[in-house]
Structures are given as C-alpha cells and as structure tokens.
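Consider the following assembly input.
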Amino acid sequence: MRYLILFFAFVSSSVFATEYVQQPGSNLGFTGSYQGEAFNGNFAKFTTAISFDPAKLTQSKFDVRITLSSASTKNSERDEMLVGSDFFNAKAQPEARYLATKFRALGGNRFVADGVLTLRGISKATPLTFTWTPGAKPQLVGTAKVQRLDFKVGIGDWDDVELIPNAVTVNTRLILSPVTTPASTVKPAPKKP
Amino acid sequence: MTLKNSSKTWGSLSIGLHWLTLVLILGLMAVGLIMTDLPNGPQKIQIYAMHKSFGLTVLGLTVLRLLWRLFSTSPDEVENTPVWQSWVAKSTHVVLYFLLFAMPISGWLYNSAAGFPLKYFGLFKLPKLSNYDPQLKELAGDAHETFFYILALLMLMHAGAALKHHYLDKDNTLTRMLPWLAKKS
C-alpha cells in the first residue's frame, strides 16, 4: 500500500504541473483613478493555489481568493467606502475569486491566463497577462484590466466615471515555492528483510 | 478713492480685499459646518472640493493683502485712541492674519494627510503637504476645527469693535473701510 502511494506521488509529479503557494513579499494590488488623480491599492489578505508549468499549460491552474475587506488605498475614508455596500460589498460577499484553467503562451516567458474573475457575485472573463520567471522560487508578475462597472463596483451615484473612471488595472507579483505534500516528504521505506 | 492706502483711509484695493475675504469666509464657515454631516456620495465630494478651492482662494488673497499692506502702508489710528484699545486692536489683527493663513493651511494639511487629491477648481493639482498619515490627519483636523472657533470669536470682536467706533465713538474707523456708509450721513 505504501509503495502504491509513493508510486502515485511519483507519477503525479511528472504528469501534473507543479503546485505552488505564495511566499511573503507577494503582492496583489490595483490602480484606479479618483478625482483626476491615480491611486494605488492593495489587498493585505489573499491566498493563491497555483499549478503551473510552461511545458504543461493544459494541466496548469490558478485559483486566487481575495479577502475584500483587506483592501487599502491609504485613505481611511475611501477604504471604508470601498469595502462598503456601494463598492465591494464585503459584508455580503467577503471574497473575490480568480480561477483560470486555460493558458496561452505569448513567447519567451510571457503567458496569458484566460481566467474568470468573480466579484460581488458577478463572473466575467478576465485575461491576466504575466511573466513567469522559473527558479527555486519562481516569480509571477502579471496585470489584468477590469472595468469596475462590469462588476457593479461603485453603484448608485458612484457610477460617475468622471469622478471614478471605469478602468482599473490589477497587478500582482507572486513569489512562489513548490507545495511540499506529505507524500513527497515520506522517507523511502526500508527494504523488507 | 485711490487704489493705494493713505495715512487717513484705506485705498480701494485693501477695501475690496477685506470685504471679499469676509464674504468668502462666511460662505466657507457655513458650508464647512454643514458639509461634514452630508451623506457620503459624489455630491459631498464636489462640495468638499469647492470648500477646499475657496479656502485656497482666501489663502492667496491673504498673501496678496499682506504684501499690499506692507507695500502701501496702512492708515494711522484715529486720534486719542487709548493705549489698551490700540493694543487689543493690534493683537486682534495679528491673530486674524495668523488665522487667515492657519485655516487654509491646516485644511490643506488635513486633506493631504487623509490621502485626498487637491485640485484648484479642477484646474490644476496642488502638491501634498504630507503623505498619508492618520495621526497627522487627526491633528490637522482638530487644528482646523479649533482655529474655526477662534476665528469666529475674533471676527465677532472685530465687527463689534468697528460698530462701537461707528455708533458710540462716532469716529471714522468703520467708514474708512466702508466709505459708502459715510456718504449717507
């Protein structure tokens, strides 16, 4: 039985893309505009489950969960407004999710994840363009363009795009390390006597 | 009436700046008291933006006024002014000028420390006096509010003294700043 588990662990590591988790220093942010001035925000809390291998794009997968109430734009009034019911509505829908299972290579180390962003209960195709820097701790640097009103972020009087333009750029820099599954940490079983 | 001030009376530029500043300040005070309780929304942001722009206008006019006062001198005191009155009047004027700077600058600092943009009537961007700083924001906000009450008190004293000169002392302290009042009598 133990050999069987080890066998599957071995086989899976070669068939599926490597799984990664984010390391400290990873960042997920966004840039918008407010009263004619660009502002940057970021999410203090988000979790990423990434399986990626440039040679195995069909087996790759991104699953990112974002805690909306952790948004900060360095302006307490604006942050309060941002997580409130007219914008993220974080009380009713605490998380946003980005899920991608389709990937395209753009040449070199550049790729596109043809994923779907779900925010405020609305799901919308949202391509994420990124570079992948392989290594012991691979780095993923990506951007995606979203239209805030597609997700009803800023409803009522806030749909004024003069005050808050529709376009928001999401940017991320992930520092990743391979997931160490319990199976791979199992020491080789001693030979039977 | 001449543009420049003389030893007897204020010139038209000083008079114009004085009353324009009064109108702006009364508007700023009224809006400032009401606007904080408005429901959050784009309209509130617009009203705040106007408050900020008019406040900056007062700051600009005050710089201009003070430069003009230094360049063009100011009228002498009316004759036989008691020393204590002269001292109180001068002190009040110094503090009023201080507040004409302190009000807009504390507001500007409050705005900067709170992380809000600042555009003069939507025309051009003004620099931030500070980075986002919640502690400084609170300090500047408290200062803006405290200065408001001191300013309101001093304005009442200033106006009360002017009316006292006009109706009780019957001297020309008020008429040299408000010449139209003199022509009637």
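Chain B has a mean pLDDT of 93. Ask yourself how this observation constrains the way the partners meet.
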